[in-house]
Amino acid sequence: MHTESLGAIFLNALLINNFVLSAFLGICPFIGVSNRLDTASRMGMAVTFVMIVSSVCAFGVNVVLAWIGAPYLQLISYIVIIASAVQLVEMFIKKFSPALFRALGIFLPLITTNCAILGLALFQTAKEYSFSESLVYALGAGAGFALAIVLMAGLREEMELVTIPDVVKGTAVVLILAGILSMTFMGFAGLV
Amino acid sequence: MNDFLKGLWKENPVFVQVLGMCPVLAITNTVMNSIVMGLATTFVLVSSAVIVSATRSLIPKQVRIASYILIIATFVTMSDYIIKAVSLDAHRSLGPFISLIVVNCIILGRAEAFSSRNGIGASVMDALGMGAGFTLAILMLGVIRESLGSGTILGMSVFGASYEPWVIMILPGGAFFVLGFLLLGINRFNMSRG
User: Fold this and answer.
1) Which of the residues A96, B47, B122, B176 has an alpha carbon 20 to 30 A from that of A155?
2) Residue B130 falls inside a structural domain
3) B180 closest CB neighbour out of A87, A115, A172
């Protein structure tokens, strides 16, 4: 068993092992929807929400699966939970903010295939976190994702004001920026 | 045939569509990991393309994404157990990233964009092409990162004993840089052709 405190788990997921920048989870939306600051922050919130819902459900499912002794169903049941949570969020956003719905576009259903969310469910199981620890871990991971995508969106908005060579425009420059951000986040190692 | 070839270059899932980046960045620190990941992803792509294409008239539109994901998850669980049976070492070094093939955007993207609208034959060719394009891309990254970061390819030394490895290449930052510069090179190539 592990002996981390709740605060350590939170900081670990938020900064030291940031899901996007050091575990490479959730790269698709990180690159795809980080061109506007407001869209990025809402995407961050939507992902955090889905993370918390699916973390709680994954914990419950894991207990049930251990009880009936069917660990090979783990992956399939996690993904079903995540897909349903995403459809719920999708219907919710469509109803309350059609503009945001259009801005997020294809990336909204693709939250289902956001590795960060499934990765979270798998990691919390692998690390044998208790219920409260799982919840804090999900919160930290979601905040970490939001932090990374908002930082990147801010950088990209700034970049529109400067002249950059045509050849690096688009994904190439985003990846190089992400590399620099990732090196920066390596500085948090040893914080806890 | 055209369905196959477009995945290799013109619509390469990694370099052009920029999909499925998580495994591309995360497990390309050695060439071996890249090969195993490429094969596993291709297997899942092709088998799920067959099922999705065969059941495309049976699945109601509203629940299609959930159904595709279920189909994909089944094949990923299979390949997870196959890799575990064939090579425990490979399974250990890839860790959770085998399970994470489920959420590789390429697979769901192809199921949604191609297999759900085309026959089985065309879907298989499309899946094979995308799988080959994906494998090619992660192999490129794997070769660059392992040779620069550890001075080896498949564990064999390439630069001799006096080579000082660039440790950054096998760390997360290096992955972003290598892919960034590869895309930059491709942009340059496409621009020079007009």
Assistant:
1) A96
2) yes
3) A172
Let me know if residue B154 belongs to a domain.
Answer: no
Contact A175 B172 (CB under 8 A): no
Tens-place pLDDT, residues B51-102: 999 988 888 887 787 788 889 989 999 998 899 898 888 888 887 888 888 8
State the SS3 of B73-118: HHHHHHHHHHHHHHCHHHHHHHHHHCHHHHHCHHHHHHHHHHHCCC
**Burial profile B76-98: b = 16 or more Cβ within 10 angstroms, e = fewer:** bbebbeebeeeeeebbeebebbb
Domain total for chain B?
A: 1
Q: Which residues of A touch B181 (CB under 8 A)?
A: 172, 176
Residues of B in contact with A115 (CB under 8 A): 22, 100, 103-104
Residue B190 counted as domain residue? no
Q: How far apart are CA A138 and CA A121, in angstroms?
A: 9
The residue type of B5 is L
| Distance set, CA A54 to CA A57, A61, A84, A160, B33 (Å) | 5, 10, 9, 36, 29
B13: in domain = yes
Q: From the CA atom positions of chain A, what is the Rg in Å?
A: 17
The one-letter amino acid at B78: M
Query: Which tokens sit at A156?
Result: 């990209």
Tens digits of per-residue pLDDT, B132-171?
Answer: 999 998 998 888 888 888 888 877 777 777 777 788 887 8
What type of residue sits at position B73? Answer: A
Nearest chain B CA: its distance from A81 CA (Å): 10
Domain range for B50? 2-142
Q: CB-based contacts of B111: which residues, under 8 Å, 6+ apart?
A: B48, B49, B52, B68, B71, B72
Domain chopping of chain A, boundaries: 6-185
Determine contact, residues A136/A130, Cβ cutoff 8 Å: no
| B159 token code pair | 């630069």
Adjacent-strand bridge partners of B152: B157
**Chain A residues within 8 A of B183 when measuring between CB atoms:** 170-172, 175
